[in-house]
Amino acid sequence: MSKYFAPLLVLLTALLAPAWAQAVESRIKDIASVQGVRDNMLVGYGLVVGLDGSGDSLRNSPFTKQSLEAMLERLGVNTRDSDLKTKNVAAVMVTAELPPFGRAGSRIDVNVSALGDAKSLLGGTLLVTPLLGADGEVYAVAQGQVAVSGFKAQGAATTVTKGVPTSGRIANGAVVEREVAYAFGTEPTLRLALRNPDFTTARRIAQAVNAKLTGAARALDPSTVEIQIPPAARADIVAFVTGIEQLRVTPDTTARIVIDEASGTIVIGADVRVSTVAIAQGNLTVRITETPQVSQPAPFSDGSTVVVPRTDVQVDEGGEQRVVVMRSGVSLQDLVNGLNGLGVGPRDLISILQAIKAAGALQADIEVM
């Protein structure tokens, strides 16, 4: 078994152990959000200038050349008949998230990503770039110095790259120009949207609200809870929402095992249960080693030098592996202990869990990322 994997499973078990002994309560604020209060995605196309020869090659990036010529024309410089060869300019895509209730004049962060064959955006400055929403309207304008955390150093025979030098960020780099209209608090009801939809959790949220406001809340579906706003609370809707958000409930989750096959990471939920099942795991390993030897003729003999093959074949059937019996209704701790006893690694554990699920003995969903 991998020396890193066993401690990982033990650590996950230790972290989840308190949840078995006592359910953990969470604020409604942490498991649900007010419907309609959300971010809006913005995107724009712009130019980054001031690069130290690491920008786009205009021959391979015609859109950069066209954008540069159009920008210079707007500034009164005609370059249509010129052969531009600068490498200090890069075409970029600029993205941002307009927060709910973002007011005109406030600032938001923007991300800048190279679009052409630029090598790095280090030291570049983003020129004025309108940021558009899904409706095609301009909601913000971005400009500023691009902060790049990665770098790239290249020599004649070696290249060193850290991070991604072709993407960066501008803190407070965009000014909000248009607000998203939303009349908050004008409706007689307030709806909460669960981040992880679940029937039980929605019902518990409604019960917690009704304990404070009798008959005011009801669960419409696994992801929505509707709350009637009392007439007296409409004068200060912010205080009303704050009081609802601070209520505590115990969220319920589906028993689930998440597997990331690319990295071999496995996360087993606390509610996973296994029926009675016997597990045997063994690996068949075949090692073939080639050790050719050179055979030379005796001195003054009429012979030739030949290569004599030497092949060594070793077969390991995993004879030390054992059979483990999982009793009905075992917990996560029992499952981890049993699989640790088999001495399996992450890859083998993935196959074992999928096999237990196929046998119908695993009462949990397996999600493969």
UniProtKB/TrEMBL annotation:
Keywords: Bacterial flagellum, Cell projection, Cilium, Flagellum, Periplasm, Signal. Its main location: other. GO terms for cellular component: bacterial-type flagellum basal body, distal rod, P ring; outer membrane-bounded periplasmic space. It is found in: Bacterial flagellum basal body. Pfam families: FlgI. The keyword Signal applies. GO terms for molecular function: structural molecule activity. Residues 1-23 form the signal peptide. One of its GO terms (biological process) is bacterial-type flagellum-dependent cell motility. Assembles around the rod to form the L-ring and probably protects the motor/basal body from shearing forces during rotation. Belongs to the FlgI family. The basal body constitutes a major portion of the flagellar organelle and consists of four rings (L,P,S, and M) mounted on a central rod. This is Flagellar P-ring protein.
